[in-house]
Amino acid sequence: MQLGLPSCARCSKMLQFEKVFFPNSVRSFSTSKAAYVKSVWRKTWPTFKERLAQQNLEEKRFPIPRKAQDKRLPWEYPKQADQKATFKHRRWYDVYYERWVDTYPRVKGKYCIGYKDKRQLLFDMETPNELFYFLLDRYPRKKYIINSFDEASPISNISYYYQYLTHTKYVHGMPYQIQNAKVDEEYMNDLRSFVNETLMMKYDVNFSEETDPLKKEQSIKEKCFATIMKYLATTLSTENNQLLDCEIDHNAENSLFWLNGRGFLKWTQPDDMAVPYQCHDKPFLQIRTKEPLPEFSPWLGEFSTTSQIPSFYTTPHVFKLEHKQYRNMISPGYKLFGGDVTQNYHSAMLEEELDQLPPPVYDPCPHGHTQLFLLPKQYSREWYRENAEHSDITGEIDEHLKGHGIMSGWVWTAAQAHYNFNWMDNDVTRPFCSQTIITDGQWLSFYCYQLNTIAVDADNLPNNDRRNICYGTTSMKLFDEITPEGVVGLNDNTLQLLVKFVANGKEQYESVVSTAEEVAKHDASLLVQESDPDVPEIELQKPTQKVSRDDQRRRDEEEAKRIEEKSKTFRERVMGYLK
Amino acid sequence: MPNLQRFLSSSPLAATSFCSGSITSASVFKVQSRGVRYKNSGGMIGGRRKRIPLNWRDLNFNPARLPSAWKPPDWDKKQEIDYEREKELAKYTPGYKPAIPSHEKDDYHKEPVYFINSSLPFSEGLKQALFVTKSVIADSGLPKQIHNLAESVSYTEQDQRAIQVIRHAHLFDVDPRSLDKENKVQRWKADNYRIVAKPDRYCPLIMKELIRLCETRSFQLSESFRNRIVIEGPRSIACFRRDCSSLDTEFLPVQDTSWNIRFDLCADMQIHSKDPLSAFADSNAVLATKDISLAPIYPIMPIADLKSTHNYDFVTNSGFSSKFSRPHLHTIALFNTDQLPPNLIYGKMLTHLFTLLYSKALETYGDNPQDLSSPLSAQCVASDGRVFQFMCMQLNTTKLNSDDGIKNMVWVDNEYVKEELYQTDDGMTSAAMYEECGHTTWKSPEYYTGYNPDVFKLFQGFWLNGVL
Question: Which residues, by range, are in coiled-coil regions (chain B) (predicted)?
Answer without folding.
Answer: none
